[in-house]
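Please, structure for the following, as tokens.
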Amino acid sequence: MRTIIIGLTIIMMASLIITETFGQVGISADSSMPDSTAMLDVKSISKGFLPPRMTQAQIGEIEGPADGLMVYCTTNGKIYTFVSAVNAWREVNYGTGLISPPFTCGMIITKYHMAGSVAPVNKTVSYGTANGIPGEPAKCWITSNLGADHQATARDDATEASAGWYWQFNRMRGYKHDGSTVTPSWTITAITENSNWLTTNDPCMHLLGSGWRLPTYTEWDNVITGGGWTNWNGPWNSALKIHAAGYLMSYDGSLLYRGSNGFYWSSNQGDNTYGWGVYITSSYCDLDYIGKANAISARCLRE
């Protein structure tokens, strides 16, 4: 064990003592030993730890970030950690105060979505939540589309702000379509794979947090049956306020049927090229086969 007193060469830290023992490092003002479980132990009763501070754009330019890398984002005042398992920066959840209260369905949850491997653009969104949905009353659902600025204003609402973002089956990356341009650029025109939607690719989990996920085929079927949904009136008149948000065509990502048709993924595939999703029009509502390379809307739920 050896103790090093910081000298005149770094006078700004003259009051600190760095203690090294068996490869561990402790930084303190009282010569205390580092905790046995810590590689680096910083002790203070008057100062804090300051991580690197960067804008959102600067964070996005970090090449090959290490798993667990942590930075403070000056763009939105949040701390982010890079999670290599999902190849994405994940927001550290602050909660609503010094101690985060337990989640209760009915709460409004506000999330900052950072553009990257999941969100197509930067956006802060507040989602309403509701349970008691006929067919699946114990589940908690968001009451607007994932990525939408707000809940739709009508069943035929054709605005981008209400539509939110669109996803291809079993793909993390969402797409925004402002009516003329798709963001990011469209690259996947065909999907052929034998897989349901993997948890690691679920945008609900990535954008809303642990526990949130896409509904299964069975959950959607229960809601359609329990609510007596036969056309778009049923979904719209429910607490979910599901509307006709349209979809993006697999060929080039062009926008179709916003305001007249609605499509919402389940997490179950039909076969190698089709996934199951809810399909609604003014005269129809049921689960249908939808081409996996088409990008459609997402609703999220949790237990």
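The two ends are 51 Å apart (CA to CA). Residues 98-302 form one domain.
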